[in-house]
Design brief:
The protein is α/β, with parallel strands linked by helices and 436 residues long. It has helices spanning 6-9, 138-150, 167-176, 198-203, 220-223, 242-251, 277-283, 288-294, 311-320, 330-337, 344-357, 394-408, 413-420, 424-435; strands at residues 19-27, 34-37, 42-46, 53-54, 65-70, 73-78, 85-87, 90-92, 94-96, 102-105, 108-116, 129-130, 133-134, 157-160, 185-189, 228-232, 253-254, 263-264, 268-273, 297-300, 327-328, 363-364. The termini are far apart. The model is unreliable at 1-17, 116-122 and 376-387 (pLDDT under 50).
């Protein structure tokens, strides 16, 4: 029988050992050997400075490979490199690494070293909150552990998660915990701006650049100078604009529409999407190089149904933040915990807000869940009494109706306005009024 080499053993199929810590020992073609601790769940390696581990090796692709911590162990995956990725003498597209494995990229050799240990949480946070994010579940504590380590850096972060899961809250928490906290936090919603205006809104324009440009306009990059630019719903960005955004991210300069000079900008980039961008790359709607530039660190927020043990903590935070503090009865918590929350934390907030609007005491009871009408999948098995709206102000009822309709429409304001029988501009005015 042929004796297996150490490198071949690294590819052996079978249950991987539970590693508590891991590091890479990097031996370049020239220069000093260095060691890198794997302190985040995903590390990208390549010759571009946008990688977590940048290699000065002419035979290494810009985005060559990545190592990601998964339930199976540390997974090595080639990212379509020109010269391939090898473990020992074997070319690999993807494999689970074992301690001692030697990864060859061009002329660079990387030894993967890990400690065998009992299974435990990876990078568990020090507390059960991070900014306005809260949660005691293992999934959220792991998210907090990553955020605690990357918030103080300038690393670009791609935040994934279902609609309503709290991606915008996470972005604001990262900014607030960073050295840029005193500087601007600018939100640019890639799906809410007309395609013809996106370039101007991102990069600005000079006076006379196009019909109607009576004055110069600073785009989101300039307004965020010194601070953080949050690109919400980046998966909705049109293909023609993606190369221009990529250039801005790499060069940290922008050119306003109609302008002749490049303007340097100092911004940290956070991006968010509810889409699977790797599938979007295959579909041709997202450029691969832009995806790699944005996903230096990738954080996935779990859906509320995947961390239902956090619901009571989330609800408590929502009612405590009101001018008139409220409590949720045990019966209400039982009802809410049996629901699968397709709208996630945003839907929970709207349910709490609408219940609070019709509650005239200090405790929300089942009869106050007037706008909570679960009707899909596994729903509440506890009947909810029909409350009377007598005595409630029209403003209170209107606010609750708007919030519930907006949630039912998945945040689509135009659709919600149609269902409510009002114009979109009127809906925006009422949302502004009620959020104050």
């Amino acid at each position: 029988m042929t004796k297996l080499t150490d490198q071949t053993k690294a590819l052996r199929v079978g249950p991987p050992p539970a590693y508590r810590t891991a590091r890479l020992v990097i031996t370049p073609p020239a220069g000093a050997i260095r060691s890198v601790v794997l302190s985040v769940p995903q590390v990208r390696i390549g010759s571009s400075s946008a990688n977590d581990v940048a290699l000065a090796d002419a035979h290494v692709s810009r985005f060559h490979c990545e190592i990601r911590k998964t339930e199976e162990g540390y997974m090595l995956r080639d990212l379509g490199s020109l010269n391939g990725t090898r473990v020992g003498d074997v070319d690999v597209k993807a494999c689970v690494l074992r301690s001692g494995a030697v990864i060859a990229l061009g002329g660079t050799h990387i030894r993967f070293l890990a400690d065998d240990g009992s299974p435990e949480e990876f990078l568990v946070g020090k507390s059960d909150s991070f900014g306005n994010l809260v949660g005691r579940s293992p999934r959220m504590r792991e998210v907090f552990g990553v955020l605690e380590r990357i918030a103080a850096t300038d690393l670009t972060v791609l935040i994934g998660g279902e609609t309503g899961s709290g991606k915008d809250v996470m972005a604001r928490a990262i900014h607030a915990a960073s050295p840029r906290a005193a500087k601007p936090f600018v939100v640019f919603d890639c799906g809410a701006v007309a395609p013809s205006l996106i370039e101007s809104e991102l990069f600005g324009h000079v006076k006379g650049a196009f019909t109607g440009a009576s004055d110069s306009h600073d785009g989101a990059f300039v307004r965020a100078h010194g601070g953080t630019l949050f690109l919400d719903e980046i998966g909705e960005l049109s293909l023609p604009l993606q190369p221009k955004l990529l250039r801005a991210l790499e060069a940290r300069t922008i050119r306003p529409v109609g302008g002749g000079q490049e303007i340097p900008v100092d911004v940290r980039i956070l991006a968010a999407t509810h889409r699977d961008l790797e599938q979007a790359i295959k579909a041709g709607s997202i450029r691969e190089d832009l995806f790699y530039r944005l996903s230096v660190v990738t954080i996935q927020i779990p859906a509320l149904r995947e961390r239902i043990e956090d619901l009571s903590m989330l609800a408590d935070k929502m009612v405590e933040s009101r001018a008139k503090p409220l409590h949720l009865s045990p019966e209400v918590l039982t009802i809410l915990e049996k629901y699968d929350w397709p709208g996630n934390v945003r839907e929970l907030r709207n349910v709490i807000e609408s219940a609070a609007a019709v509650c005239d005491g200090d405790t929300i009871e089942p009869q106050h869940l007037v706008f909570f009408r679960p009707n899909r999948g596994e729903r509440s098995k506890t009947p909810v009494a029909e409350p009377s709206l007598a005595g409630q102000s029209l403003e209170t009822v209107e606010k609750a109706a708007i919030l519930q309709t907006l949630e039912r429409c998945g945040g689509n304001k135009a659709q919600a306005a149609r269902e409510l029988g009002i114009s979109t501009s009127t809906l925006y005015e009422k949302l502004k009024k009620y959020s104050g």
